[in-house]
Every structure is written in structure tokens, then in C-alpha cells.
Design goal:
The complex is a heterodimer of chains A (about 260) and B (about 325). Chain A starts with 9 loop residues before the first helix and ends in an 8-residue tail after the last helix. Chain A has two domains: about 120 residues, no CATH class; about 140 residues, Glutaconate Coenzyme A-transferase. Chain A is of the alpha/beta class. In chain B, strands 1, 2, 4, 6, 10, 11, 12 and 13 form an eight-stranded mixed β-sheet that branches. A three-stranded antiparallel β-sheet of chain B has the order 7-9-8. In chain B, about 50% of the residues are buried. The chains are: A alpha/beta (about 260), B alpha/beta (about 325). Chains A and B meet through β9, α4 and α5 of A and β5, α5, α6 and α7 of B.
């Protein structure tokens, strides 16, 4: 394929997929401990978003002309303020979320067939969880309010993709169909679920999770075997579109010079 | 009138004219606000700007049964308090330290043992509670959480139908700490505090509380504050404690980076207990950095000047 790179990691592929979901002029927040979504947001900015505003470590900025964006390990690393055009206070997020970001990436301990997700913990007895999670952070608010969000998980197995979450901390499509509308949730819900094996979306009517594309080198069986519920499998399943050489050049030359996405 | 007369008039005026009081207090005076069973607030954010001298003072004094309103996203500051057995209940939306440890070990362990109450909330609900506290309202509503498990696992959150439009919303009860302890870059002697950078949720904690005590990296003159008054983030702190390296082992915007090596030492000590049941390393940690020292300055001596100054090398 002309213009496409043959040399890329799965994390670079996923960052590229997210980047292509973000449009020029949008605002996009980079959350804590999320190197792949970070790279996706910054790739959108440098590749096709000269008018985007990106939020790094409670600052807002436009880094379109920055040659090299050091990959700070911690979201609280205040050296990121070197690029700041403005600061915001943390609680301003919840006063007018879309003034700060249009999109959000949501991680999870568990995800169900309708894209509802759980960061609270695992175990049926809440008073004695088998596994206490890190907590919901801002995901309930983001899932409720924002125009769209993306589920991103760094592994794909039956412990994560379950028939029913033990707890729901970020609302996806609820029980499916018009559940969001019935609850009066203004946000647009989860658009895609991005994993190391594949990309999934949600079937338009039922809002049940559907296989969208499979990553190069991954088989359909592998996806099905590692998903703890019945995915909608369309007749035609494309391979996830690889990054272009230009996207790889931007990722490796300006966004992820340290190569975190290649480890 | 001779010079001597003028001086005596000035002296008389100084004695009779009320003087603006400064707000500078000692570490011990700050710790004097601590009581068993109280509700207190702690500022900062994940790996940044926690008021650590008071965290260690709580442990050193053996304060128990605290309800701690942590930062919206807490870090190992809260984990240390829970591990040392000072906490009954915590209010926060995240317990972790990003790449240093994805989940706070002592909080995870205590929660799984059923020994710790968590006010389960997301950050939007957390700030709704603080705002209700500041406004002396019984609650404020959020739409965040509608349809989720939050109201089931946290019975203090109430689902209700709003009387204006009939929408389904969640009532988050007011959160009102008795005292809030924060950390910031600068203050003048009168409690005009200037954070460096964003200040995260510190102003929301300050507004919700009756009393705000701020540990500051540098005490500066009133003139220095007046030079850039738009930077004043907390204009009426009740107490200022001079605390160089007061956020250590966490980072302080504009001053120093976090002490990753120290935090890794802490996490290893905590995990030896939570994963292998061996509490010796954790007790050694407490002894070395908290029980075995009597003040913040002695703590800094225990850390050592080489380590402290290396955190400036970025």
C-alpha cells in the first residue's frame, strides 16, 4: 500500500487510530498515565490539527510548532508547563467540560458488551472486594457529558471483557438501544474500544459491541477467544489501517522520541 | 519640638495603633488542630504538592479515626496515612501514583480487608460535594453517575428527580472539612498565598472549610505579593507554616521534582506487607522518617542534603 508504513508497533497503530478520530479545531485532554492516548491526541494535533488545543498537566496549549515534545512520565510533571498558554483549575473541568476537552479516553478493569466500564473494583461484595481498583477519576463525568469518548485498554482478555461488570463507574450504552436518551445523558457515549488485538465499535441500533477491525497479525479466533461475551462479527472484517509513513515520522521524530510506544 | 519629642510621640502612636497580625505559625501549632475522629482536608494532586509535614505529624502523634478529604486524585500521601492506621474513611476519586504504582497499596489492602470506608465518587461528584460545603447547602446535584453503580456502592449519594425539569440527577452531600491543610509555593506573612502553576483543587478545598493552614516553600514579603496580586490563589489563609521541601517526596511546581527513589522505597515497604504479610519494612520506614524524627527539619536531615538538592537537577 502506497504511503503506509510497514514498520510500526501495535501501540503506534492504536495511537494512529485515535488520532484519526480527532478533528482540527477540537480540544483534547491528555489524562494521567495514558501514553497511547497521549500520543494519539498529539499526533492528531501535529498531523492534521494546527488549530487544536491540547491539555497537558492542567495547562492548555497549542504545540503545533514545537519540534520535539518530551514524553513526561507523570501527568503532574510541572515541566510540561513550558508549553502552557493557560492554566486551568482542576474543578473547572466539571464546570464546563467541553470548554476544556471534546474527547476523553477511559480505561477499565472490566468492560461489558454495551461499553459500560468499571474502575471501582472486582468482586461481588463491595465491602470486601477481591481487587480494589484505582477509582473512577473523572470518567463518570466524561462519559456523561462529553460529545464522545474512547475506551482504551492495554490488554485484551476475558477478565476485562465480561458479560457483566461487577460495578459500572463510566456509563457506556447502558442496556443498549436508547438507554442513554432515556436517562437524559447529554454526551454521545463511547465510540470505539481500542485494544492490543482489535478495534471495536457499537452496532447502531442495539449499541452492542461489534468488531470493527483486527490488527495485523491477529486472527479472528484470537479476538473471540479473549472476549468474555459474544461480539457482533460483521461479514467483512478489515485489517486496522496501518499508520502512514508521515504519521510514523511524526510519532517517532516529535511525539515519542524516547520510543515508549515501541517497548 | 525637638527630635526627642517626635520620637516619644511616634513611640506612643505605635503602642496605641492596632497592628496587622501575621499568620505565621509553627509546625507544632499547625498540628495542634489535629483531633482524633475529625474530618480534615489535604491538598495536592497525585504526585504533586501534598502538605507532607502535617501528614507525618498526624502519624507521629498517633491521631486515629480520621475522615480525610483527600485531593480529587490522591497519591501516596493518603496511602501512608492509611498504612499507619490513622484513617477511618477517605473521600477521593483516585488512589494511585501513575507509573510508580497503579494502585495505592495500603489503600487497596485496607479496602479489600473491609477495614477502610471509601466515599466512592468521581471527580465531578467530589467537587460538587466541596462546592455544596462552601455554599452551606445540604447537597448539589450532578448528572455524572446517573445509570452507574456509584449510588449503590455509596449510599450517601441519592438519586432524585429534579423539581424543575424532572430530570434524574444525583444529590452529592456537602463535604465540609473542619480544617484543610495545603501546600503552596509562596505566602506573605499575612496569609496571602500564591501557588506556582495550577493549584489543582486546592482552592475548592479551601472554600469548603472553616480553617485553611498552608505549608509554603518560601515566605515572601507583602510587597512581593502586591507585585502580582492576580497570582494570589488563597487570599485569607488562617495559618502559614514555613516549610522548605514541604512537599517531599512529591514534586513542587517550579521548585523540585518528585523523589522517585524515595517513593519506590515506600512502595516496596508497603507491598512487603500487603503482598507478603511482612510489616517490618513498613515499620522501618515509619521509624526512619516519621517516629524517629521530631520535626520537618529533622525529616529533611534524614533524607539528606545530597538527595534533596539532586531534585533540583532537571
Amino acid at each position: 500500500m502506497k504511503g503506509y508504513s510497514r514498520d510500526f508497533s501495535i501501540q503506534e497503530l492504536n495511537a494512529t487510530f485515535l488520532s484519526r478520530q480527532i478533528r482540527d479545531g477540537e480540544r483534547a485532554l491528555v489524562g494521567a498515565n495514558t501514553p497511547v492516548p497521549r500520543a494519539g491526541v498529539l499526533l492528531a494535533h501535529l498531523h492534521h490539527g494546527p488549530n487544536m488545543i491540547v491539555c497537558l498537566a492542567r495547562t492548555r496549549t497549542n504545540v503545533y510548532n514545537e519540534q520535539r515534545l518530551a514524553n513526561f512520565e507523570l501527568s503532574t510533571d510541572w515541566r510540561q508547563a513550558r508549553w502552557a498558554e493557560s492554566y486551568y483549575l482542576h474543578y473547572e473541568l466539571f464546570d464546563a467540560f467541553d470548554k476544556i476537552t471534546h474527547i476523553f479516553s477511559v480505561g477499565a478493569l472490566q468492560i461489558d458488551p454495551y461499553g459500560n466500564s468499571n474502575l471501582i473494583g472486582v468482586g461481588k461484595d463491595y465491602r470486601k472486594l477481591k481487587f480494589r481498583g484505582p477509582g473512577g477519576v473523572a470518567t463518570a463525568s466524561a462519559a456523561t457529558d462529553l460529545e464522545r469518548y474512547y475506551l482504551y485498554v492495554a490488554s485484551h482478555d476475558k477478565r476485562i471483557f465480561v458479560e457483566e461488570c461487577d460495578y459500572i463507574s463510566a456509563f457506556g450504552w447502558g442496556e443498549g438501544r436508547d438507554h442513554r436518551i432515556r436517562l437524559g445523558l447529554p454526551g454521545g457515549g463511547p465510540q470505539y474500544c481500542i485494544t492490543p488485538l482489535c478495534i471495536m465499535d457499537f452496532e447502531q441500533e442495539s449499541k452492542r459491541m461489534r468488531l470493527h477491525s483486527i490488527h495485523p497479525g491477529v486472527s479472528l479466533e484470537e479476538v473471540v477467544e479473549n472476549t468474555g461475551f459474544k461480539l457482533i462479527i460483521p461479514d467483512h472484517i478489515p485489517v486496522t489501517t496501518p499508520p502512514t509513513r508521515e504519521e510514523i515520522r511524526l510519532l517517532r521524530g516529535r511525539i515519542d522520541v524516547e520510543g515508549i510506544l515501541r517497548k | 519640638m525637638g527630635i526627642r519629642d517626635i520620637k516619644s510621640i511616634q513611640g506612643a502612636m505605635e503602642n496605641s495603633t492596632p497592628k496587622r497580625k501575621d499568620k505565621i505559625i509553627t509546625e507544632e501549632e499547625a498540628a495542634g488542630f489535629l483531633r482524633n475522629g475529625m474530618t480534615l482536608g489535604l491538598g495536592g494532586f497525585i504526585n504533586c504538592s501534598h502538605p507532607m509535614p502535617i501528614v507525618r505529624a498526624i502519624i507521629r502523634r498517633g491521631i486515629k479515626d480520621l475522615t480525610v478529604i483527600g485531593p480529587a486524585s490522591s497519591g501516596l500521601d493518603l496511602d501512608l496515612l492509611v498504612g499507619a492506621g490513622c484513617v477511618k474513611k477517605i473521600v477521593s476519586s483516585y488512589f494511585g501514583a501513575e507509573t510508580i504504582t497503579p494502585i495505592s497499596p495500603m489503600i487497596k489492602y485496607a479496602s479489600e480487608q473491609g477495614e477502610l470506608d471509601i466515599f466512592e465518587c468521581d471527580e465531578g461528584m467530589y467537587y460538587a460535594g466541596l462546592r455544596a460545603g462552601a455554599q452551606r447547602l445540604p447537597f448539589l446535584p450532578t448528572r455524572a453517575g446517573v445509570g452507574t453503580s456509584y449510588p449503590e456502592v455509596n449510599p450517601e449519594l441519592k438519586v432524585f428527580s429534579d423539581p424543575i425539569k424532572g430530570e434524574t440527577l444525583i444529590a452529592v452531600p456537602a463535604i465540609r472539612p473542619e480544617v484543610v491543610f495545603l501546600y503552596a509555593g509562596y505566602s506573605d506573612p499575612y496569609g496571602n498565598v500564591q501557588h506556582v502553576g495550577t493549584s489543582y483543587g486546592d482552592r475548592a478545598l479551601h472554600r469548603s472549610s472553616d480553617k485553611t493552614i498552608v505549608f509554603v516553600e518560601r515566605l515572601v514579603s507583602n510587597e512581593a505579593i502586591r507585585k502580582e496580586p492576580f497570582k494570589t490563589s488563597i487570599p485569607v489563609a488562617d495559618g502559614i507554616v514555613r516549610s522548605p521541601f514541604g512537599a517531599h517526596p512529591f514534586s513542587s511546581p517550579g521548585f523540585y521534582l518528585l523523589d522517585k527513589e524515595h517513593l519506590r522505597e515506600y512502595v516496596a515497604a508497603a507491598r512487603a506487607y500487603t503482598m507478603d504479610g511482612d510489616r517490618r519494612l513498613f515499620e522501618q520506614y515509619l521509624q526512619k522518617y516519621i517516629y524517629g524524627v521530631s520535626s520537618h527539619l529533622e525529616y529533611l536531615e534524614a533524607i539528606g542534603i545530597n538527595r534533596l538538592l539532586s531534585l533540583h537537577e532537571f
